[in-house]
């Protein structure tokens, strides 16, 4: 095509220096367009070459750096299986299996990744009763609570406190005696705090894995199952639709 359009331009347009160029981008057999600049494609050829990774993600959470690699792999597996199989029942089974796998991940793999920009500014929001004021980002709350725990258990010499500019991991814990709704750490969660702060796996799954899968299901027209239940019934299935 590039050769012929040059010949055409010379003959029909009388151009002495035609610069028409066709370029192949992506050829795919399946694609899901969720919103503007948010889509997933199963690519057969990319710029004339078979890609090593056949799936192309644009604007989907699976590419975010705030998730760990194991979590991103889990999301990709659910999404890609659904797109390739186009079968709701098998996709729901894979989603439930993903939840079981997620619940076996260590704390570091289910936690979100963030960066604390100004923890001193956030600490000023602590009220006189010791509670953190409204408007404090949840990851900042987790960082403040973590530093409090280091002091409370007198382990500041063993574990580095979280300061401004530090990249952290954070998670939603189960109900605990301190009533903290977030907990952060730097690289490895201290063993001294493990018995006190258990990960709320259900909430973490809902906040990380479910949103991108939900968008895919909504786009396809599937009802999202309650993955923590053994069985779910879709009204449309009962009606035979």
- What fold name stands as the CATH topology of the largest domain? Ribonuclease H-like motif
Topology order in helix (H) and strand (E) letters: HEEEHHHEHHEEHHH
Q: How far apart are the termini?
A: 46 Å
Strand content: 5-15%
- Separate helix tally: 9
Strand order, largest beta sheet: 1-2-3
CATH architectural type of the largest domain: 3-Layer(aba) Sandwich
- The number of strands is 6
Shape: elongated
Q: Average pLDDT, to the nearest integer? A: 87
Taken together, the total number of domains comes to 3
CATH superfamily of the largest domain: DnaQ-like 3'-5' exonuclease
Report the C-alpha radius of gyration, rounded: 25 Å
